[in-house]
Write the structure tokens for this entry.
Amino acid sequence: MAQANPSGVNRYHPALVALHWALAILLTMSLIGGMAILDGIPNDSPDKIGALFGHMIAGSLIAILITVRLIVRFRTSKPPEPDSGSAFLNRIARPVHLLAYALVFGMVGTGMAMSVMAGLPAIVFFGSGDPLPATFDDLPTRAAHTFIAFTLIGFIAVHLAAVTMHEMRGTELLRRMWFGDRAT
């Protein structure tokens, strides 16, 4: 059952919309870049520094944007939650969205920790001349970073399936997360 609309808005704030789509692009690029490109370049290759530079900049930008997105999310009026047609799915929607934030923060946090442990800021950003470690696999946060990456990919797949289900039910979910007049 659709909820009443005390906020008087039918779309999310334009800043939230912009942040949502910017993060979608950055997260996709970072996941693909990390798994399909970065992992395939040996640490002794000169190309590795450039790939790490891009990945670390993207990760830092994601950290900033997800923090701003969280602040905007809680400080702006929102449209009522759409009805999925299932009381259970309606009930878990908010915790699942919070899980998305936790996964992204976990991904960024483990990446930053791994970077610091490997001495990457000095090597990648400041050209210290030190070689990269032979491998990152022995760093304690490497396994967590990889696990979160696969979990995030699964979460994104479920998110896309849920959006598709909502669109098929006519809840206009994509319209809510796009630009336009917010008034109901």
Q: What stands out?
A: Residues 87-117 form the longest helix (31 residues). The helical segments are 14-37, 47-75, 87-117, 120-125, 142-169, 173-176. The CA atoms of residues 133 and 175 lie 47 Å apart. The chain has a mean pLDDT of 92.
